[in-house]
User: Fold this.
Amino acid sequence: MAATVGGAGNEQALVEQWRDMLALHARTQCELDRALHRHGLCASDFEVLDVLAESRAPDGSCAYRVQEIAERVHLSQSALSRLVARLEKDALVERGLCAEDRRGVRVALTAKGRALHADVRPVQRAVLTRMLAD
Assistant:
C-alpha cells in the first residue's frame, strides 16, 4: 500500500512539474511576443530568423530546407509555410528551389532579415534571461 501512495505522490509531483513547465513556456512566449511586437515580429517569426542566422544547414549551405526549419522551431509544415510566406512578403527571407530535390524549397535570410535579426536578437535574449533565470 505504501508503494502505491508513494507512486501516486511521485506521479502528482511529475504532473505538477509538467504544468509548471507549460506555465513558464506560456509566460515566456507572451513576454517574447510583447517585446518583439515593437519590431514587427512575433516569437515564432524570430525563431525562424534565429535558426537561419545562427548556423549553416547540415549540407554546409546558408539556407535551410523548410523541413529542416520545421524540426528546429516545432511548427507544423503548413504553419511554417504560412510564416515563411509572411517573412518573404516583408523581404526578410527568400525562398528558392533545392538543387538536389526540385520539389524541396530552401529558405535563406535576406540582408534586411539579417539586419533585423541582429537588432532584435539582444531583445529576445534579454527576455529569455529574465524569464528563465533560476
Remarks:
- Residues 2-37 form the longest helix (36 residues).
- Helices lie at 2-37, 43-54, 66-73, 77-89, 111-132.
- Residues 1-5 have pLDDT under 50 and may be disordered.
- Residues 64 and 106 are 5 Å apart (CA to CA).
